[in-house]
Amino acid sequence: MSDEHYSYRLYADPAMADRFDAMRFSGPIGTLLAESQDRVVASFLGPIEGRAVLDVGTGTGRAALGLARRGARVTGVDASAEMLRVARDRAAAAGLAAAFEVGDAHGLAYGDRVFHAAVSLRVLMHTPDWRRCVSELCRVADDRVVFDFPAACSAAALQAFGRRVAAAAGRPVEAYRVLTSSEVRRAVEDAGFRVERVHKQFVLPIALHKALGSRGFTVAVEKALAAAGLLRLLGSPVTVVAVRCAP
How far apart are CA 64 and CA 56, in angstroms? Predict the structure, then answer.
């Protein structure tokens, strides 16, 4: 894919790689996001000890190292050598075994069904061709794939629209996409998989929760919104586990 797309240019920056984790997963809400994501991925993957798992768009390796802690044989792939530099340093510091390789989510350099599972988090929203990426995830996974996306029917859609407008005006922003559950389901089915379960995280925008910076407020308010049925309707991001259909 063209390296002119923002997702390639932005994450090739060494400074971005060095500050990425602090930007995304620091503070009370960043920590809450990371903990929730880890729990959902663990639940969706099931037992993975000794199994080969591919983390596509691994970035600084946070998800990959979580999988390695659970005993998986992990390979992390990312288009950014700088992000992988940080991932390798983190693995070494933690004493965890994980392989990190430069690669592109649109064309994975692995054979069909060579991994037990493939994971891709916070990636499809940024890729030039998300359907092709889903197809590749399903191609290399023997049993299941886990990925997430911001929902078109959510507050995230308003932020995404604002970013697209800003990008069109020439501002340097991540003009990410939002997706509908129906188009994601179709892409998965076209690849020979079926959606087994979904998990929706928040009703209110993550940016709002981070701005407020109160874990207690976030947990209490989101619990109340979920009880009112709004999480089911408007929750985002959406994490999906899809399993291979029987031949």
Answer: 9
Q: Helices in the chain by DSSP H: which ranges? A: 6-11, 14-25, 27-45, 62-69, 81-94, 130-140, 155-168, 181-190, 206-212, 215-227, 230-234
Asked whether the bond before 237 is cis by omega within 30 degrees of 0, the reply is yes
* Dihedral over Cα of 105, 109, 114, 115: its sign: negative
Nearest to 7 by CA among 126, 159, 111: 126
pLDDT band (50, 70, 90) for residue 174: confident
- DSSP three-state, residue 100: strand
Is the model's pLDDT at 3 over the cut of 70?
A: no
- Cα of first residue to Cα of last residue in the chain, in angstroms, is 32
Beta bridge partners of 195: 242
> In angstroms, what is the C-alpha Rg of the chain?
17
Per the structure, the complete domain to which residue 49 belongs is given by 6-244
Residue 139 placed within a domain: yes
Q: Are strands 236-244 and 193-202 parallel, antiparallel or unpaired?
A: antiparallel
Length in residues, the chain? 247
CATH number at residue 93: 3.40.50.150
pLDDT 10s digits, 76-102: 999 999 999 999 999 999 999 999 999
Identify whether 99 is part of a domain: yes
Distances, alpha carbon 174 to alpha carbons 68, 163, 177, 188, in Å? 30, 7, 9, 25
What's the structural domain count of the chain?
A: 1
